[in-house]
Amino acid sequence: MIDTKYFDHTILKAEATEAQVAKICEEALANHFASVCVNQYYTKFVAEKLAGSDVDVCTVVGFPLGMSDTRVKAFETKAAIEDGATEVDMVINVGALKDGKDEYILNEIRTLKEVCGSRAVLKVIIETCLLTGEEKVKACELSKEAGADFVKTSTGFSTGGAKAEDVALMRKTVGDAMGVKASGGIHTAEEAQAMLDAGANRLGTSATLAIIGK
Question: Fewer CB in 10 Å around end: N or C, the chain?
Answer without folding.
Answer: N
